[in-house]
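Take a specimen:
=====
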Amino acid sequence: MQLLNTLVAHAIPWIPRALIQKISRRYIAGDDLAHALVRIRQLNAQGFCVTVDVLGETASTAQQAESTASEYRRLLEAIQRHGLDATISVKPTALGLLLDRQACGQRLEHIVRSAVEHQTAVCIDMEDVRCTQMEIDLFSQIRARYSNVGLALQAYLRRTYQDIEPLLRDGNNLRLCKGIYLEERSQLVDHAWSDRSAINAHFMAHVTRCFETGTFVGVATHDAVLVEQVVALARSRRIDPGKFEFQMLLGVCQPLRDRLLRTGFKVRIYVPYGGDWYGYSIRRMKENPRIAGHVARAMVGL
């Protein structure tokens, strides 16, 4: 089955968009805010907290970036109005990072200020290696003025060992993931760990540093072995449960997320919505061939 899933993942460019759209409903809350609110309420009722993402990367025009920023402000207002246990996640390229860095920073600051007003928080997502330093700089600028903003880091990048240390000293809120930008891996020989299976050791090293320094960390992984290692480390070191949480994507590894919740751990579900369902689905399938397996089953009518 693993081989079949991998073959399907490589065949993604030839899979009909309509089929990918059908499968994407498992991982995307819907095309608009109304659909997202329904899914967030359901997850909150089950005991999960949520981080919401407006789909889209790399705005091609200032107008597109402004539209995304406006949608985030609508989302923040709705989160407070409906009393939801939710924060937001923002990709700076969707706010125009690669068009105009200063304008992107202004848009992001407006969103963070709105989040303060609506009593929630913002996580700045990390994107491909071209953006890493720009996004760390952007976070540092915003964090100097607002405390309700956190940053994602990717364990597959070699530089994360250096990037994380100053962040640990300042009481920041961090999100640690393996990193999904596999399509760039051939260009990252000098920047990233090429052996995917070896990333776990680096991931655990970063989690350990967060635990050692009392830094809040969102442990964003679906790797059951890695999850068990984090649980064992937290218990052996008697880490306050309020100093970390597990984070998982909507529709992925639901038995694992449910078990963690029943065990008493805080679990946050990443809930995306919006019109860019195709790009998001493609990235998820490249990252996790098991998701591509759902496409394979749909293709044969299972």
User: Anything to note?
Assistant: The CA atoms of residues 129 and 191 lie 8 Å apart. The two ends are 14 Å apart (CA to CA). The chain has twelve helices and eight strands.
